[in-house]
Amino acid sequence: MSTRAVHTWECVGGVLIAFSTAGRIDDALWDAMIEDLKSKPLVGYLGCTVGATDTTSSQRKKATDTLKKRSLPCSIVTDNRFVVGVVTMVSWLSVNIKAHDWLHAMDAIRWIGVNDVDAQKIFEALMRMRYAAMSDLAPAETG
Length: 143
Prior knowledge:
By secondary structure, this protein is of the alpha/beta class. The protein has five helices and five strands. Strand 4, helix 3 and strand 5 (about 95-100) form a beta-alpha-beta unit. The chain is globular.
């Protein structure tokens, strides 16, 4: 049985930023994000993971279909080789997508095509989301 991932998202500077930790993403949560991806006025998608996010084939199909239909550039930031492989596979399906490592997160944001001011806001939001998610996973201190 897979662990449940922390999965959050928000829209900043016309980019839907999604952050996930390792583990399975709940279908209802994924579907809510896909609805925002379908309906919000966006110029791009930034998907970020720490570890291997365990998305189902149905979840990947929903995301791929939506990104392709909207022709949104999609930048993925990850530390996981499996996720990089999935990104490569999705790029073969005519989705404008590219993987980046965490050291190049700002390059990933700029690759979407946003201006420098929005890029900085997006980067700050991403780091805030990452910190919050990783804090949620930290073991509680005992005394």
